[in-house]
Every structure is written in C-alpha cells, then in structure tokens.
C-alpha cells in the first residue's frame, strides 16, 4: 500500500499524464529532488544533534528542512513557484557553505550543488534556463580556482584539472546530454500524438462508411466472433436496444439450414434462421476475407420470399405457375401475357380499339437499397394487388420483369384522345403504398402504344411501349409511342456506346467558368464537363442524361474529381486559393465507392475542404432521397461547402433548405435573364437573396449576360456573379498552362 502511494506521488501515471506530459514530468522530478534534499538535511540534522550539538547549525538546518518540506507540500498546486524557490534555496545554501564554512567537505558539497544546478534547472524548466545556470556557475568556478591559486603555490595542476573536469562534467556535459534525451522524448511524443490523431480520423471515416453501406453488415473473425455490426444488422438480429450483438458469436444468433457445417459463416452463401425466431429466414453472404483474416458478411431477410415460395410449392399447379406466372405477384409473365393479349385480339372483331402500356416504378433501386429486398418485394406485391383492384376485369395485367408491369386495356372512342387516356391511367396508379405501417410515396414512368395504330400484336405493342418508355422524363412521366422516336433512340444508343468508351478512357474534359465578386475580382470557378465527339461538342445536357441512364455518372464524377484534385493540389502548392465548384446529380452520392472517395480525399488533404465545393443539381428526384441527405450531412461535417444549384426549379425548393446542409445558394439563369426589365423577377430574386442572407448563406447568380443585370444583382446584395458577361467557360488547361500563369493573375473584369 505504501509502495503504491509512493509510485502515485513521485512517478507518472496515466491520469495525470493526460494533463500534459511536460508539466507532469517536471512536477515528478521536482518532488523527487525535494524528497532527496529533505532526506539529506534530515540526516544532517540528526547527525548534528547527536554528535556535534551545534545550536546555530541545528537552527539553520531545521529552517531549511521546514522550508523544503513546505515546498514539497505546495509542489502540486504551485509547481513553477516551488521549483524557483527550490533553486534559490540550493543556490543560497551552497553560497553560504562556500563563503562562510572553512571545512573542505562543505566546500565540495557546495560546489557539487552549484554544478548540479544546470541539470536540475533543465529538469524543472527549459533548456534556455539551463544555459543561464551554466553561465552563472562560471563565477563559483572562478572563485574556487582563484582561491586555490592564492592559497597554494605548488602542485596546483592536478587540483585545477580535477576542478575543471568536475565543472565541465556536472555543469555542461550532463545537462546537455539530459536535454538531448528530453528533446528526443518530446519529439517522439509529438509524433505519436500526430499519428494517433490521424488514426482517429481514419477510424471515423471507416466507421461512417461501415454504417452507411445500406445493408445489414457484420465484421467477424474466423471463429465467428462478431467484432462490429452496423445499425441495420443490430436491428435485424436483436430486438433489444442495447448493443448485445458485438463481442458475441454468430452462432448465438443464427442457425444454418441444410449442411452448412460448424463454421457456416465461412461459406460464400448460406441460408440461416434466427435462433430467437425460427420463422425468420436470413441469407448470409460472405463479401470478402480481409488481410487480417476477418470476414465481411452481408445479411438479408428472406422470410417473405420463403413464405411465397412455400405457398407456390404447396399448390397442385406449381409447374404451370412457374411457366406462365410471376413467382411473386402471381401475374402472367411476359410470354403468358402476350398469349392472353393475342388471344383477346383474335377473338374480337376488327373494330376493337385498345391501348397497351408499360408501367415502371421509378427509383425502385433506391427503395431496395434503403428498405431491403423483403420490403421491396412487399412494395411490388401491394402495387400488383392495387392495380388489379382498380382496373376493370376486361384488362389484362402482367409483370414483365423487375418493376415493369404491362396492361392491355380495351378502349372506347373517348379514350383514344391522349389526354383522356393519360387521366385514366393516372387514376389507377396509387400515389402511396403502405408497407409495415410505413407510407411510401410512389412515382412512375409510363410508355403507351395504341392497338392497330402502333402495332397489331402484343409483342409489337410491347416493343413500341418500351421505346416510348425510354423517352419518359421527370417532367413528362407519360410518353406515347412515336415512329420518329425510333431513329432518335438508335442514335442515342450509338452515342451511349461512344460515351461509355470516352468515360472509361477519360476523354471527358473539364472547363472552368469564373465566378466574380461584385467588384469584378475572380473568387472561384465552376467546373463544367465537356465532351468532343468526332470534332463536335456534345451538349452537357445530352451526354449527362445518357450517362445517368447508363449508370455511368459515378465513374465520370470520379474521373473528373481526381483531375480537379490534382489541379487543386498544384494550386495549393503555388498558394493559389481559388475554390472550384463541382456539380453532382445525385446518382454519384448513391454510389458507395464515390462517397468513400470524397470522404477519403478530405481526410488525407484537410485543405481540400476550402478548395472543392459540391453543387447539388436538380436533374432527378433522387435528390429528395433520405440517404442523399444523410451523406450530404456527413460531407458537410467533414468541411465541404455545399451549394444548392438552380434554386427554385425542378426538385430544388424551400424543402431542400431544410433537408440539405447547404451554405451556398445559386439563383437559376431563368430568374436572371428577364432582369432588369421584369419587376416580378426582380422581386423574386430580391426575396431569394434576403432569404439566403437570413439563413447565413452565400448567394451566386448565374447566367448574367449584361452589365445592367450585373449592376442590379450587386445592388440587391448578391455575393457572387457568374455569366458570359464576365467570362465564358474555357478549358482548365488554359488556367494551368505555363506553371498556372493565368490562374495566378486572376485579373479583374470591370
């Protein structure tokens, strides 16, 4: 117990070290030195008391003993002051012994104490203070050597060199050696602290990525011990709110079905059931084996699908259903739907009129990713039931594949008008579907073809509906077949093949358009993608839309971001602090790899958060998805500036100001172009700027083409201006050529 007390009192411990290693080290050294000095004075006091009995010496020694004990008591609260007083005490006592005492041993003790002062000073204070003590000690060295020279005239060489050796060793050598050791320890401690901080930053990044994979995910060792589980996995395995999953084993929660073996989690795919609920089926997929011998496992609840499969297998018409009906919805599949439709057409007379249409549920991949495959299947099942309920019994309904449903509806003359037919189809499509108590908003795309006019067989009508479906958009959800669209679709297909090659070969270039202050000084750029195909520039609105359809936006965005970061790194080294804004359509942020790239870039290059801005465009309804908002909040927390582009149009609205952590607002050119003549647009722009100012947001107006527009927007308080009036977009190479010469100029516009 006493030994433990001494360790806590005199030595370092983890709790006190957290307050600052230098201060704790000095405090520990001070206590040890004080304790040793007190011990020496105490022994001297006892020796004098029993053997010499010198009253004056006893009094002085007792005074020093009390003083040193008091210093030890106050050493924790007043460390610096105590250290100074301790040094003064040593200096005073040493000089008194050196000047007043005639004993040779007293003189040696005084010199040793004085020569030790630089070392003690280095332990308690800084290196500079130690140097000062070294210089001060020249005086006592001078005194003692001079005194020896005056008292003795012969045989002084050995004494002098002994004094010099003692002086150099204690006064200079030891303090410098200890200073070197302390400096090395401090450098190592500082380096370790930096490594620890970087390790914490990387851990936070990987923790964020692990939690946002979108599927229940486990990390376990080869013996099945669960090292980490994300929120979805914890909710799937355990009903308890406490984190009881981590540090348990997979075998505690899942039981394999079939012959999976004892270490079933090492298999690529294995079917299991929950131990707590045997009726819940879980599919375990092993994603990879890490370098440390750990397994990454993805879980999927297949209970609903199992139930449907068992229900189908229990009927006597299983084989017929597998051949002619969709397994999930029990609707006719493509072949059986075409057979039923052609039979209906052949049975009717030649005056039959009707319409074929294909319904595609929009953004279903996002629903599948967010809510899981089970709930996605429930959405499909509920939609099929509601469709059957709302359409007449004469309608033939089928499920083609995935989220596409086909319908053939006999029509009266009134519904041959497209407006009336669109209203009829819209009335039967549910705007919301309830799944497990949650109401989900539904959105659709519909391709429509008329019987006889656009085709006379089910196969031909479905093919033309598919063509019409390709030309549906966020603004035009209902698209009718047009023969003129066929050539356009073919051209778009060819262009899509070329675009895919161009993106893979990194042939999409970056152009920069300056953004200026009201005084005309360039303050930032907007990065614009440009594609030159066969010597002709393809409009960005065209090839970006094609890339989005083909799912190429994440790869395109990754290529452009890496090129931008290379340029910004060069500018950072040249002290060119001009941010560049990069546009995102939303599909990129849904991609886990691209999201992880953005997080990694800013983690490895902290300065990048001030140089790379993210502009969120409104090209698709994906921007309203909760996962997008969650990831934008994560990017904002990592320091990225986020701008809402084209505010007031499409998906960009007041709702975005609530859901997206943006600090920049861009006014669309549609509101700027009528200025300054249209007072209504002036009022709208003025209100938008005031709204942004009240929210602490920076405002950028784009599409400025005249001086009058620029002056008006500056007068209304717009922070940043952009448009052809100031500068047209130009290749980024223009700004980086000749050692970034043009970027260094940043000439004023006015």
Automatic annotation (TrEMBL):
Swiss-Prot/TrEMBL keywords: Membrane, Transmembrane, Transmembrane helix
TM spans (from-to): 32-52, 58-74, 81-100, 120-144, 156-178
Signal peptide feature range: none
Residue ranges occupied by any EAL domain in the UniProt entry: 492-743
CDD domains assigned to the protein according to its UniProt record, in alphabetical order: EAL (cd01948)
InterPro entries, sorted: Cyclic-di-GMP_PDE-like, EAL_dom, EAL_sf, GGDEF_dom, Nucleotide_cyclase, Rev_trsase/Diguanyl_cyclase
Any Pfam family hit: GGDEF
Taxonomy, superkingdom: Bacteria
Domain spans labelled GGDEF: 352-483
Transmembrane helix found in the keyword field: yes
PROSITE patterns: EAL, GGDEF
Keyword Membrane: yes
UniProt cross-references to PANTHER family, sorted A to Z: CYCLIC DI-GMP PHOSPHODIESTERASE PDED-RELATED, CYCLIC DI-GMP PHOSPHODIESTERASE PDEF
Name under which the protein is recorded: EAL domain-containing protein
């Amino acid at each position: 117990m006493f030994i433990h007390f001494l360790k806590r009192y005199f030595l370092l411990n983890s709790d006190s070290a957290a307050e600052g290693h230098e201060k704790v080290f000095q405090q520990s050294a001070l206590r040890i030195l004080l304790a040793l000095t007190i011990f020496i004075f105490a022994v001297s006091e006892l020796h004098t008391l029993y053997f010499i009995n010198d009253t004056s010496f006893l009094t002085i020694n007792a005074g020093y003993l009390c003083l040193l004990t008091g210093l030890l008591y106050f050493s924790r609260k007043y460390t610096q002051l105590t250290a100074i007083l301790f040094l003064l005490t040593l200096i005073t006592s040493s000089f008194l012994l050196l000047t007043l005492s005639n004993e040779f041993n007293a003189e040696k003790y005084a010199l040793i104490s004085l020569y030790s002062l630089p070392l003690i000073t280095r332990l308690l204070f800084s290196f500079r203070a130690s140097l000062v003590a070294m210089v001060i000690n020249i005086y006592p060295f001078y005194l003692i050597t001079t005194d020896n020279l005056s008292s003795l005239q012969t045989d002084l060489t050995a004494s002098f060199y002994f004094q010099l050796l003692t002086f150099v060793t204690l006064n200079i050598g030891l303090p410098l050696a200890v200073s070197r050791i302390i400096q090395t320890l401090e450098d190592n401690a500082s380096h370790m602290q930096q490594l620890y901080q970087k390790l914490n930053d990387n851990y936070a990044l990987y923790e964020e990525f692990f939690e946002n994979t979108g599927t229940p995910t486990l990390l376990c060792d080869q013996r099945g011990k669960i090292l980490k589980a994300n929120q979805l996995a914890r909710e799937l395995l355990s009903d308890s709110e406490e984190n009881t999953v981590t540090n348990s084993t997979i075998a505690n929660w899942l039981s394999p079905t079939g012959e999976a073996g004892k270490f079933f989690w090492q298999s690529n795919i294995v079917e299991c059931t929950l131990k707590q609920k045997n009726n819940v089926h879980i599919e375990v997929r092993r994603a990879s084996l890490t370098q440390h011998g750990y397994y990454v496992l993805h879980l999927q609840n297949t209970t609903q699908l199992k139930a449907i499969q068992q229900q189908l297998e229990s009927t006597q018409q299983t084989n017929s259903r597998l051949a002619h009906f969709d397994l999930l919805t029990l609707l006719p599949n493509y072949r059986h739907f075409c057979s039923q439709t052609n039979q209906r057409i052949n049975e009717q007379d030649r005056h039959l009129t009707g319409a074929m249409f294909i319904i595609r549920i929009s953004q279903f991949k996002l629903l599948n990713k967010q809510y899981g495959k089970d709930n996605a299947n429930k959405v499909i099942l509920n939609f099929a039931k509601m469709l059957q309920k709302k359409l007449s019994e004469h309608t033939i309904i089928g499920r083609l594949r995935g989220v596409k449903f086909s319908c053939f509806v006999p029509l009266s003359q009134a519904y041959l008008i497209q407006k009336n037919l669109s209203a009829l189809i819209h009335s039967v499509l549910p705007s919301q579907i309830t799944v497990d108590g949650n109401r989900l908003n539904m959105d659709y795309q519909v391709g429509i073809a008329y019987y006889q006019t656009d085709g006379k067989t089910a196969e031909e009508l479905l093919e033309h509906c598919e063509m019409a479906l390709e030309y549906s958009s966020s603004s035009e959800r209902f698209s009718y077949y047009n023969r003129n669209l066929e050539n356009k679709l073919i051209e778009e297909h060819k262009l899509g093949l070329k675009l895919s090659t161009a993106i893979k070969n990194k042939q999409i270039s970056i152009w920069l358009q300056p953004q200026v202050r009201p005084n005309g000084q360039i303050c930032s750029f907007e990065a614009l993608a440009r594609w030159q195909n066969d010597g002709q520039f393809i409009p960005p609105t065209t090839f970006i839309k094609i890339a989005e359809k083909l799912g190429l936006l994440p790869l395109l965005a990754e290529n452009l971001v890496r090129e931008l970061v290379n340029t910004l790194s060069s500018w950072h080294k040249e002290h060119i602090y001009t941010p560049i804004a990069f546009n995102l359509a939303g599909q990129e942020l849904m991609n886990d790899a691209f999201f992880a790239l953005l997080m990694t870039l800013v983690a490895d290059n902290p300065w990048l958060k001030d140089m790379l801005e993210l502009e969120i465009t409104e090209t698709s309804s994906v921007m309203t998805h909760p996962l997008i908002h969650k990831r934008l909040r994560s990017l904002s927390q990592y320091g990225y500036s986020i701008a809402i582009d084209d505010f007031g149009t499409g998906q960009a609205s007041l709702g975005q100001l609530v859901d997206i952590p943006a600090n920049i607002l861009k006014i669309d050119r549609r509101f700027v172009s009528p200025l300054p003549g249209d007072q209504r647009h002036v009022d709208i722009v003025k209100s938008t700027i005031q709204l942004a100012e009240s929210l602490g947001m920076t405002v950028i107006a784009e599409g400025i083409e005249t001086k009058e527009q620029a002056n008006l927007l500056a007068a209304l308080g717009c922070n940043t201006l952009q448009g052809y009036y100031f500068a047209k977009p130009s290749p980024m190479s223009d700004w980086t050529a000749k050692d970034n010469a043009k970027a260094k100029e940043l000439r004023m516009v006015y």
